[in-house]
Amino acid sequence: MQRVPLYQAKAEFFRMLGHPVRIRVLELLQEGPKPVRELLAAIEIEPSSLSQQLAVLRRSGIVVSARDGSTVVYSLAGADVADLLRAARRILTELLAGQQGLLAELREAEQSPARLL
Amino acid sequence: MQRVPLYQAKAEFFRMLGHPVRIRVLELLQEGPKPVRELLAAIEIEPSSLSQQLAVLRRSGIVVSARDGSTVVYSLAGADVADLLRAARRILTELLAGQQGLLAELREAEQSPARLL
DNA sequence: TGGGGAATTGCAGAAGCCTTCAACTCATGG
DNA sequence: CCATGAGTTGAAGGCTTCTGCAATTCCCCA
């Protein structure tokens, strides 16, 4: 078994999350298992492109797929992703608020530029 | 103000976390503000490479830097990253455990391959 | 005022990731 | 058995990201 430093495993994990389509899939799957067809309808994207992203999620083990007749159903692999996404949203909210605050300052500064110096 | 879909902002956020050095920096900064020199000592890496990664973190707003004489001190921008990293660790633990379980099965299977079919 | 250390920036080459097209597998229904 | 629809896989091309070197900035101290 190959020993990988923990911080590297974490980095890979976050990188795995770092794609809009993959995020949307995880969010959708939080409502419960979904067939590909349904994901495809919700996220507008080429089927093969969705498949590629699903493959990334599958390889990481965060989702699993099961065949049911001619359709394939995906579901979260137990892991509660909800907490993670919630924590991310909290931070993101702070960060965006910060940026808005900054932008507000800059807008004011346009009116009296001296304040920036 | 340019309106970016939330799932895209989330993806960018996770992508920003997706680098071993950046993860280590965030972990170190959880103990409190640290001068670059100290980060450099803890993480073995070229100074310029660390600077690049610090710049990524800075741009995202998750850390801030302040000059103190000839050294520069970095700190978390308030956001409590701890929760996020904790949630990530939980999931990661599950995933790794899953993989180990799987590997164990495969090892058994080597001894009686029929069980896999 | 000039030397020197701390950190950052600019950049080029290498590495990795994303999208898309075409080919393929698998199950269903005629 | 073959055609068709659902998904997946493979591979190429274009883009982004990473690493490391060289040059630069900023501050301190002699």
Short overview:
Chain A has 117 residues and is mainly α. In chain A, 63% of the residues lie in helices and 12% in strands. In chain A, strands 1-3-2 form a 3-stranded antiparallel beta sheet.
Oligomer: homodimer
Which protein chains make the most extensive interface, counting residues with beta carbons within 8 Å of the other chain's beta carbons?
A-B, 45 and 45 residues
> What is the straight-line distance between the termini of chain A?
57 Å
Q: Give the low-confidence spans of chain A.
A: 112-117
Any idea what the CATH superfamily of the largest domain in chain A is called?
Winged helix-like DNA-binding domain superfamily/Winged helix DNA-binding domain
- Structural class of the helices, strands and pairings of chain A? mainly alpha
User: Which fold name corresponds to the CATH topology of the largest domain in chain A?
Assistant: Arc Repressor Mutant, subunit A
Question: Mind explaining what this structure looks like?
Answer:
The structure is a homodimer of 117-residue chains. Helices cover 63% and strands 12% of the residues of chain A. Chain A is mostly helical and 117 residues long. Chain A has a 3-stranded antiparallel beta sheet. Chain A has 5 helices and 3 strands, in the order ααβααββα. The radius of gyration of chain A is 20 Å and the shape is globular. The first copy, chain A, has 2 domains: 1-77, Orthogonal Bundle (Arc Repressor Mutant, subunit A); 80-117. The structure holds a DNA duplex (30 and 30 nucleotides).
